[in-house]
Write a structure and sequence with these properties.
Shape: globular
Distance between the termini: 69 Å
CATH topology of the domain at 45-140: Immunoglobulin-like
Strand content: 25-35%
Strand order of the largest sheet: 1-4-10-9
CATH architecture of the domain at 45-140: Sandwich
Radius of gyration: 25 Å
Structural class: mainly beta
Largest sheet: 4 strands, mixed
Length: 140
Protein backbone atom coordinates (compact mmCIF):
# COMPACT_ATOMS: atom_id res chain seq x y z
CA UNK A 1 0.00 0.00 0.00
CA UNK A 2 2.87 2.40 0.77
CA UNK A 3 4.31 1.78 -2.74
CA UNK A 4 1.02 2.71 -4.45
CA UNK A 5 0.74 5.97 -2.49
CA UNK A 6 4.38 6.80 -3.21
CA UNK A 7 3.89 6.23 -6.97
CA UNK A 8 0.72 8.36 -7.04
CA UNK A 9 2.45 11.12 -5.06
CA UNK A 10 5.44 11.14 -7.42
CA UNK A 11 3.25 11.08 -10.53
CA UNK A 12 1.21 14.11 -9.47
CA UNK A 13 3.98 16.11 -7.79
CA UNK A 14 5.17 17.83 -10.99
CA UNK A 15 1.78 18.63 -12.55
CA UNK A 16 1.71 22.22 -11.34
CA UNK A 17 5.26 22.81 -12.56
CA UNK A 18 4.49 22.19 -16.24
CA UNK A 19 4.76 25.28 -18.45
CA UNK A 20 1.61 26.49 -20.19
CA UNK A 21 1.15 25.45 -23.83
CA UNK A 22 2.66 27.84 -26.39
CA UNK A 23 0.42 30.51 -27.82
CA UNK A 24 -0.54 30.33 -31.48
CA UNK A 25 1.74 32.39 -33.66
CA UNK A 26 3.09 32.51 -37.17
CA UNK A 27 4.05 29.27 -38.77
CA UNK A 28 7.75 28.38 -38.77
CA UNK A 29 9.63 30.19 -41.51
CA UNK A 30 7.33 33.25 -41.58
CA UNK A 31 9.28 36.33 -40.42
CA UNK A 32 7.34 38.41 -37.93
CA UNK A 33 8.09 41.62 -39.78
CA UNK A 34 6.89 40.40 -43.18
CA UNK A 35 3.21 40.28 -44.19
CA UNK A 36 1.96 37.02 -45.60
CA UNK A 37 1.58 37.00 -49.37
CA UNK A 38 -1.82 38.24 -50.52
CA UNK A 39 -2.53 40.28 -47.38
CA UNK A 40 -2.44 43.98 -46.66
CA UNK A 41 0.75 44.90 -44.79
CA UNK A 42 0.26 45.20 -41.06
CA UNK A 43 1.71 47.88 -38.80
CA UNK A 44 4.44 45.46 -37.66
CA UNK A 45 5.66 45.33 -41.26
CA UNK A 46 5.71 49.11 -41.63
CA UNK A 47 8.68 51.43 -41.36
CA UNK A 48 8.22 53.79 -38.41
CA UNK A 49 9.40 57.10 -39.81
CA UNK A 50 7.50 59.24 -37.29
CA UNK A 51 10.39 59.41 -34.83
CA UNK A 52 13.22 59.13 -37.35
CA UNK A 53 12.75 62.50 -38.99
CA UNK A 54 10.70 65.60 -38.40
CA UNK A 55 10.45 66.77 -42.01
CA UNK A 56 8.62 65.32 -44.99
CA UNK A 57 8.75 61.58 -45.60
CA UNK A 58 10.12 60.57 -49.01
CA UNK A 59 8.08 58.03 -50.97
CA UNK A 60 9.49 56.86 -54.29
CA UNK A 61 7.01 55.89 -56.99
CA UNK A 62 8.40 53.41 -59.48
CA UNK A 63 6.57 51.53 -62.16
CA UNK A 64 3.97 49.59 -60.18
CA UNK A 65 5.46 49.99 -56.69
CA UNK A 66 5.97 52.44 -53.84
CA UNK A 67 9.05 52.53 -51.63
CA UNK A 68 8.33 52.26 -48.80
CA UNK A 69 4.92 50.70 -49.34
CA UNK A 70 4.05 50.68 -45.64
CA UNK A 71 5.12 53.37 -43.17
CA UNK A 72 4.09 55.17 -40.00
CA UNK A 73 4.43 58.94 -39.72
CA UNK A 74 3.51 61.77 -37.39
CA UNK A 75 0.37 63.70 -38.25
CA UNK A 76 2.49 66.84 -38.62
CA UNK A 77 4.61 65.30 -41.38
CA UNK A 78 3.99 65.76 -45.10
CA UNK A 79 4.80 63.18 -47.76
CA UNK A 80 7.26 64.04 -50.52
CA UNK A 81 6.39 62.01 -53.62
CA UNK A 82 9.02 61.35 -56.30
CA UNK A 83 8.04 59.57 -59.52
CA UNK A 84 11.13 57.68 -60.67
CA UNK A 85 9.08 55.57 -63.06
CA UNK A 86 8.35 55.85 -66.77
CA UNK A 87 4.58 56.44 -66.39
CA UNK A 88 2.20 58.73 -64.49
CA UNK A 89 1.46 57.64 -60.91
CA UNK A 90 -0.80 58.81 -58.13
CA UNK A 91 -0.82 58.72 -54.34
CA UNK A 92 -4.50 58.30 -53.56
CA UNK A 93 -6.27 57.82 -50.22
CA UNK A 94 -10.04 57.47 -50.68
CA UNK A 95 -11.94 60.70 -49.95
CA UNK A 96 -8.79 62.43 -48.62
CA UNK A 97 -5.78 62.62 -50.95
CA UNK A 98 -5.35 62.38 -54.71
CA UNK A 99 -1.95 63.58 -55.92
CA UNK A 100 -0.82 62.82 -59.49
CA UNK A 101 2.91 62.90 -60.25
CA UNK A 102 4.26 62.84 -63.79
CA UNK A 103 7.41 60.82 -64.61
CA UNK A 104 10.58 62.52 -63.37
CA UNK A 105 8.67 64.98 -61.17
CA UNK A 106 8.37 65.48 -57.41
CA UNK A 107 5.69 67.03 -55.25
CA UNK A 108 4.78 67.27 -51.59
CA UNK A 109 1.47 66.81 -49.77
CA UNK A 110 0.18 69.01 -46.99
CA UNK A 111 0.88 67.71 -43.47
CA UNK A 112 -1.23 64.61 -42.94
CA UNK A 113 -3.15 66.21 -40.05
CA UNK A 114 -4.63 68.60 -42.63
CA UNK A 115 -5.62 65.74 -44.94
CA UNK A 116 -6.64 62.70 -42.90
CA UNK A 117 -6.05 63.04 -39.18
CA UNK A 118 -4.76 60.02 -37.24
CA UNK A 119 -5.50 56.48 -38.39
CA UNK A 120 -4.43 53.69 -40.72
CA UNK A 121 -5.07 54.33 -44.40
CA UNK A 122 -4.68 52.29 -47.57
CA UNK A 123 -3.20 54.22 -50.47
CA UNK A 124 -3.17 53.29 -54.14
CA UNK A 125 -1.99 54.42 -57.52
CA UNK A 126 -5.29 54.95 -59.31
CA UNK A 127 -3.59 54.04 -62.59
CA UNK A 128 -1.88 50.85 -61.40
CA UNK A 129 -3.86 49.48 -58.46
CA UNK A 130 -4.65 46.29 -60.42
CA UNK A 131 -0.89 45.82 -60.90
CA UNK A 132 -0.35 45.82 -57.13
CA UNK A 133 0.70 49.43 -56.65
CA UNK A 134 -0.81 49.78 -53.17
CA UNK A 135 0.36 50.54 -49.66
CA UNK A 136 -0.52 51.50 -46.10
CA UNK A 137 0.26 54.66 -44.14
CA UNK A 138 -0.26 54.92 -40.39
CA UNK A 139 -0.73 58.52 -39.24
CA UNK A 140 -0.06 59.07 -35.54
Amino acid sequence: MKRVLLIVALATAGCDALPPPPEAGPSPGTPLDQPMRGTTPTPTACHDISAAQAGPVAVIMQDNSYSPDCFAISSTQAIQLANDGETRHSFTIADAVDVVVEPGNRTETEPMEDLTGPGTFDFICKYHEDDGMVGVVIVR
